[in-house]
Amino acid sequence: MSTARLEAFSDGVLAVAITLLVLNISVPHGPDLWHALTQQWQEYLAYVTSFITIGIIWVNHHAMIGRLRETDHTILVLNLFLLMSVGVLPFATALVARYLKAGYDESLAAGIYSGSLLLMSLFFSALNRQILLVKSDLLATGLPESQRRFIFRRSVTGIVPYVIAIAVAPVSPYATLAICAAVAAYYATPLASASQT
After folding, report:
1. What is the pLDDT of residues 79-91, one digit of tens each?
2. Which of 55, 72, 127, 165 is at a distance of 20 to 30 A from 181, taking alpha carbons?
3. What is the pLDDT confidence band of residue 115, given thresholds at 50, 70 and 90?
4. Residue-by-residue DSSP string for 21-53
């Protein structure tokens, strides 16, 4: 199967997920609008973190699929799992923002949020591994094995910080969100982007 349908479907899912994020930001109430707006900083931080994360997934997904000449069943299924994990991010984003603001169960909410990002990272890595290392015969242009392994290693660097973010959630949910935001910021740099290779 050609990659065009896979990319078109994936772009649609990613576009819907990234758009749904803004619906989680509530319109503030009260006589002092500025004060009400500043009291929702958790929603803004969660929104920006998730928006950048999904945006980076879109950029790197395009680069990853762009390397392919054609797809196979395993690649299609792994791509579906990746999209499923991205589709959960609007819910996880709303959850962490709401419970950080509420001041209770925030550790559990932060753990679920960072866990959803870890799951997405694992599915992205599994798909990238399938394309670069297992089914390299489907690549449009042959890449040396050393280069393919380098690209893959660079793409899995986000897994460790997400594991750490989950581990620190019971101690500090704010540290968890900060780690997730730092991972998003790191992958937004040209140095970390898979599209540069």
Report:
1. 999 999 999 999 9
2. 127
3. very high
4. GGGGSPPP-SS-HHHHHHTTHHHHHHHHHHHHH
